[in-house]
């Protein structure tokens, strides 16, 4: 017999590093979710930009079941067909020549940062070890990735953290010019900052970052954990910037919720991770790679990618209409279906109030920092769900304004 659990069970048995909502989802289909009480929600959160093809996508369920009857796991003493097929597709569809598989975005970034230092060590010597990243960036929760991430709150209490890391303001090329040197081994950036407030990179800024990396023999690492796999309206957001990185990390949407991450690299950069330099017990396992291959096959089509752009406009128009009525946001921005609505200064720190009110209205949304309401729905969310979800969001906005 299955034991009954409630939200109170969390407080009894779980480490208190999360503060989950009162409701517990138990079932999802497409862009709708139902909780233990049978209440329905429209999902504009996507598991924090993860469920790119919605819940219980029939093709992914089919692929998972088929692979579950074949092989779940093999050690990296050998390879497997799903991993090889997925790696081949990722290299064919991107700038990259080589792939390393992990279980998450943080692990993909850990691999990328280790590669950057090893590449510099092998080619230029041990003094070339500094990494430059950007304030408000987010690259994961391991000790190395929170150190590269530009949000000090995630490092507090865990010091001493890895050194040799510097930060500057995003989209500020003059600050970067002042920091970069012959000691720099890599510049790490998100094409669109996610946790930092849904802030896209300026094209000219990205172009100059690439030029500086070339000038100082530093690798350019793009963290596309959140922006990748169609969320920006192209398979990867770097395609829209006109800038090609040396290394790219991807996860979240790649598995539609099944844990998988990948680091993509040029052949030149990838050679730094020679035999025995890095590894992952579960990385590249057949279950994860078979599902991720199916995700790539579905997402990387004109129908889905053009659909992302059309849905983006529906969100922009809908959010602007709500804002014209209630005047609560000072900016609505983003790329594709990674969007943010920044609250006005008088509501600073209260983005979470919109999340709570939305949940009461039957809508799942997110925050990106204290001042931005974030929307990251399925890339194939039906238009009727967008319309209904925006209607519920308007109810939430009205409630926040009334309070």
Descriptive report:
By secondary structure, the protein is an alpha/beta fold. The protein has two domains: 151 residues, Aspartate Aminotransferase, domain 1, CATH 3.90.1150.10; 229 residues, 3-Layer(aba) Sandwich (Aspartate Aminotransferase, domain 2). The protein has 14 helices and 17 strands. The chain has a seven-stranded mixed beta sheet, sandwiched between helices. The protein has a four-stranded mixed beta sheet with strand order 1-2-3-15. A four-stranded antiparallel beta sheet has the order 13-14-17-16. A hairpin with a 4-residue loop joins strand 16 and strand 17. The longest helix has 25 residues. It is globular. The termini are far apart.
Topology:
Blueprint: H1 7-13, E1 25-29, E2 32-35, E3 40-43, H2 46-49, H3 58-68, H4 81-93, E4 98-102, H5 105-124, E5 130-134, H6 143-148, E6 165-168, H7 173-179, E7 184-189, E8 192-193, E9 199-200, H8 203-215, E10 219-223, H9 238-241, E11 247-250, E12 261-265, H10 267-270, H11 286-299, H12 302-326, E13 329-335, E14 338-343, H13 351-360, E15 363-364, E16 366-367, E17 372-375, H14 383-402
Helix pairs in contact: 3-11, 4-11, 12-14, 13-14
Main location: cytoplasm
Subunit structure: Homodimer.
Pathway: Amino-acid biosynthesis; L-arginine biosynthesis; N(2)-acetyl-L-ornithine from L-glutamate: step 4/4
């Amino acid at each position: 017999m299955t034991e009954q659990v409630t939200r109170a069970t969390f407080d009894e048995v779980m480490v208190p590093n999360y503060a989950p909502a009162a409701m517990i989802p138990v079932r999802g289909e497409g862009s709708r979710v139902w909780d233990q009480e049978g209440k329905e929600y429209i999902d504009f959160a996507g598991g924090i930009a993860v469920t790119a093809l919605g819940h219980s996508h029939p093709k992914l369920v089919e692929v998972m079941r088929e692979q579950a009857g074949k092989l779940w796991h093999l050690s990296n003493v050998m390879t497997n067909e799903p991993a090889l097929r997925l790696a081949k597709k990722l290299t064919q569809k991107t700038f990259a020549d080589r792939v390393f598989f992990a279980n998450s975005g943080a692990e993909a970034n850990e691999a990328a940062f280790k590669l950057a230092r090893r590449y510099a060590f092998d080619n230029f010597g041990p003094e070339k070890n500094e990494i430059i990243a950007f304030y408000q960036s987010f690259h994961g929760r391991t000790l190395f990735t929170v150190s590269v991430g530009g949000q000090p709150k995630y490092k507090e209490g865990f010091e001493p953290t890895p050194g040799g890391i510097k930060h500057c303001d995003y989209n500020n090329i003059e600050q970067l010019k002042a920091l970069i040197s012959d000691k720099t081994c890599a510049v790490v950036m998100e094409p669109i900052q996610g946790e930092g407030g849904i802030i896209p990179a300026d094209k000219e800024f990205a172009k100059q970052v690439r030029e500086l990396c070339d000038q100082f023999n530093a690798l350019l690492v793009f963290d596309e954990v959140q922006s990748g796999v169609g969320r920006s309206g192209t398979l990867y957001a770097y395609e829209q910037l006109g800038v090609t990185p040396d290394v790219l990390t991807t996860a979240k949407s790649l598995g539609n919720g099944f844990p998988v991450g990948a680091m993509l690299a040029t052949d030149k950069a990838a050679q730094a991770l020679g035999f025995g330099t890095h590894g992952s017990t579960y990385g590249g396992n057949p279950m994860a790679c078979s599902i991720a291959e199916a995700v790539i096959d579905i997402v990387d089509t004109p129908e889905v990618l053009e659909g992302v752009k059309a849905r983006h406009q529906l969100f922009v128009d809908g959010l602007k209409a709500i804002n014209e009525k209630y005047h609560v946001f000072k900016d609505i921005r983003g790329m594709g279906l990674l969007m943010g609505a920044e609250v006005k200064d008088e509501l600073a720190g209260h983005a979470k109030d919109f999340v709570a009110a939305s949940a009461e209205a039957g809508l799942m949304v997110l925050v990106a920092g204290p001042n931005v309401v974030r929307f990251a729905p399925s890339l194939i969310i039906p238009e009727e769900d967008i319309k209904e979800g925006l209607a519920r969001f308007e109810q939430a906005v009205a409630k926040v304004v009334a309070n």
